[in-house]
Write a structure and sequence with these properties.
By secondary structure, the protein is α/β, with parallel strands linked by helices. It is built from eight helices and eight strands; from the N terminus they run H-H-H-E-E-E-E-H-H-E-E-H-E-H-E-H. The N and C termini lie far apart (52 Å). 37% of the residues are buried.
Length: 260
């Protein structure tokens, strides 16, 4: 199948899964088809799906990621020993694990084509990631606690694992508890990664954006916590601070270079 044929197949299968979507016209333009497919994947509830669908989906997503361009850790230069700063799309990063800023439900963002990291990671990992996270939540019998971490395979992403952590939501004034919980996110991810022999991990800017944690303070906590963990445990784990926007890049650059 060509990439176009895969995309049409996947759209049709997802439309036919739900009676309210049946009869929906598939647009002729590639970009509109891609948005429709992503939206359908985003709103799909966890549930069984055929092996045939997954085989086509996997081939489609892996080719999409290849077309975006994969960046390997080996291509990056450290800012400090074992610490890296990289601006780019975390779903294209090849390393041991990437960190997802999850919500307490942990099964992803259900808003069609939302640009949050949770949505992006679940989209390009594929439907299997939502199923894996749903299984974790079902087994533990409650939502994920703030400041903790869980690990899943990365499925169609170029990394090996995805670490899922729920950062604190800041509504009103920033408190010491918010800071403690954010530090716990970073430490919990590194501790869990060590248990799985993960040798490199990429952190997104946890709790910033829609969770309203101030970017500069969040970056200070991230860097301090990672440095303290590496020093206290003598860990050789390589850590990538992944940023998407220019503002966060400058904040992290200044802090890592000792100019902040």
């Amino acid at each position: 199948m060509t990439q176009s044929e895969r995309r049409i197949y996947l759209i049709r299968e997802l439309l036919n899964e739900d009676a309210k979507y049946r009869g929906t016209e598939i647009p002729s333009e590639k970009d509109e088809q891609s948005d429709l497919l992503r939206g359908l994947m985003n709103v799909r509830q966890p549930g069984k799906i055929s092996d045939d669908f997954l085989a086509v989906q996997d081939a489609y997503l892996q080719e999409e990621t290849e077309e975006k361009g994969i960046t390997a850790l080996e291509e990056l230069s450290p800012v400090l020993e074992g610490l890296y700063l990289w601006q780019g799309d975390i779903t294209t990063l090849r390393c041991g694990a990437i960190v997802n800023a999850a919500n307490s439900g942990m099964t992803g963002c259900y808003t069609p084509c939302h640009n949050c990291i949770d949505n992006c990671i679940h989209t390009y990992a594929g439907i299997q990631l939502r199923l894996a996270c749903d299984e974790i939540i079902r087994k533990q019998g409650h939502g994920e606690a703030t400041g903790q971490a869980k690990i899943t395979p990365a499925f169609n992403l170029p990394c090996d694992y995805v670490m899922h952590t729920v950062g604190p939501i800041v509504s009103g004034s920033l408190t010491e508890e918010h800071k403690r919980l954010l530090a716990s996110c970073y430490r919990s991810c590194m501790e869990l990664a060590e248990q799985y022999d993960v040798t490199s991990i990429a952190f997104c800017c946890i709790s910033t954006g829609v969770f309203h944690f101030p970017n500069d303070i969040a970056a200070e906590i991230a860097i301090r916590t990672v440095k303290e963990y590496r020093e206290q445990t003598k860990s050789s784990m390589k850590v990538i601070f992944n940023v998407f926007g220019d503002r966060d890049y400058e904040i992290y650059r200044e802090l890592l270079e000792g100019r902040g």
